[in-house]
Amino acid sequence: MTAWRAALRPHRPELVAIAILSIVVVLFAGGLVFRLLAIGIPAECLSFDSGTNAACNGMDRLREEYQSTVGQWSQPVFAAIAVLPLLSGLVLGVSLVGKELDQGTTTLAWSIGPSRRRWLVLRVLPIALFVVGAGVVASLIGELVLQLRERASSYIQPFEGLGFRGVVVIAEGLSTFGVALLVGSVLGRLLPAILLAATLILGSYAGIGLVNDTFLRTESLVVEQSEFLRGREIESLVRTPEGEVLTYEEAYARYGDDLGNMSETSELRQVVRINPVEIYPLVVVRMAVLHAALGFALLVLTFAVVDRRRP
Asked: Per 3-state DSSP, what percentage of the chain is helix, strand, and coil (rounded to 5)?
């Protein structure tokens, strides 16, 4: 522990800043949770058919207050949750090696130390655990807020909150940390490293999202319009009398104005392409593995960079 304290002493300001940010996010989200629970309306009285429940008589004002609070504050809370692992990984990752290169402290440390790898392990391991801890906090908060938000909705989207809840948030923090750590080790200058790392992190998020969307496209099925609540809707389509499934553009080119009379004829049917809710656990695991694998690969590459670069 003494070696860890000595290794982390130069990064105390960044650790304190992320700890304060975590506390602010917890208090912000906790305020919303406390406010929603304080309204004191049962979950069964938040649905649109609650009027048939005698126990919900006279709760219209409470229902409106609950739904208004959710609509006003849930998105800012989710934004704060998204920022927490991103900022913790970015700030701590860049400063871990980049700050010491920028200040020139590595010249002495690497010249008298027995191994650069040991020097890096003493810094990476505790800060990586700190980043994971921030991700766990964000994950738990996201799960709780989403559950309270879903109470106020008549339509629960199974894939809602993907990337803001569960193990995906923790894995995102690791991938962010890996990108920032490598960039800081290569550039050795804080401001350019932060700017470049932020750009690459956003690009990695977009790339992993694109890969995941590509998989989701192949894991879809076409169902009747009345069944689309069973999963995540991708697009609306048209089924012909022969059973062929067309996009709206293809259907209009073939049937013209008849396309507008689908509700009055059985010749054409509106259908929906969805991702069934049953694949949600697989999607979560896949996104988490992609982010974690990226972070681990970049971490290994950082060790190679540190081992070979000049102080």
From this structure: 75, 5, 15
- Nearest alpha-carbon partner for 232 in 246, 217, 245, 244: 217
User: Which residue type is seen at 167?
Assistant: V
Range in 26-35, 75-84, 154-163, 271-280 the model is least confident about? 154-163
Highest mean pLDDT (candidates 40-49, 118-127, 217-226): 118-127
d(CA 89, CA 201): 10
Phi, psi of 97 (to 5 degrees): -110, -40
- Please give the average per-residue pLDDT across 197-209, as a whole number: 92
Cα separation values, 227 from 180, 214, 276, 309, Å:
44, 23, 10, 58
- Say if residues 178 and 201 touch (Cβ distance below 8 Å): no
pTM score, whole prediction: 0.83
Q: Is the dihedral of CA 46, 47, 52, 53 positive or negative?
A: negative
